[in-house]
Amino acid sequence: MRKHIKSKMIIQLVLLSVLTIAMIMLFLTYQTYGNWEFALLLRGKKLLAFVIVGILTSFSTITFQTLTQNHFLTPSILGFDSLYVLIQTVLFFIWGSSHQRDPRLFIINVVLMVFLSVLLFSALLKKEKQDLFLLLMIGMILGTLFKSMSTFLQVMMDPNEYDKLQGKLFASFSNVEVSLLVLVIPIVMLLVILFMKAANKLDVLHLGMDQAINLGINVGRFQKYLLFLISLSVALATALIGPITFLGFIVANVTYQWLETYKHTFLFLAGALLSILFLVSGQFLVEQVFQMNTTLSVVIEFSGGLYFVWKLLKERGGNT
Prior knowledge:
2 strands, 1% strand, two-stranded antiparallel sheet, mainly alpha
């Protein structure tokens, strides 16, 4: 990489870091009215959730898009969101809402999501038959199946339990359990190290499957390894705060436009910073501007949907 391009990207990352830290300070200190301890305790918990979800979402989406060679796809196409809804519905259906703050249910959620994902791509990505797009299509079909099964169980559920379940199925940063954060942080740190170690191979994979094979990468094994990291990241983020479809899509594509590089070390760092910046800014708007009349997940899904349509029309216009 040329020296001046690398210097430019480092300056961009520093600017992004300064902007993110400034936004975090504003979020933590705005209108605390002297109640520093209470405000920092309440907002600090949310901030920790923003950092964890921001890192997991950006790293997993950028990796998934390099793997699929498509900037429109996100890991949710593998049916993670639908699987989360199904698991929550089954848990509510069997045990009711009284056990929902039990950390063991969080672990069950994560283990089930990762286990089913590994089972799926281990069965479909066998030896020479490394058909990644068959995996994506089956993931979409399974997503529809999971939704149908969830709807079936929800129809038979007690109305009070159903009402509580609906609250659980929307992403929320306000009710994150501190005990879960303590459990998740070491796993997130390990995932960051593993993604960073895979960055150089992802740079090669960015050139295409054939070029990666010619340059000595065992693509089949590397695909399975990356899908495991992606599955664990998405499972942790979804089980922690609930499903958010468009956050990864927004962050990954803005990162590509901001840095204009294929180097995944820089893409990961910028993506994580952008993700945290978006989440903190969005929560600040929800609390201080909209006066809690909406939720952060609604803002993300609405703006993400508009951005998706705009990018789709832009790409289509560029190809005609």
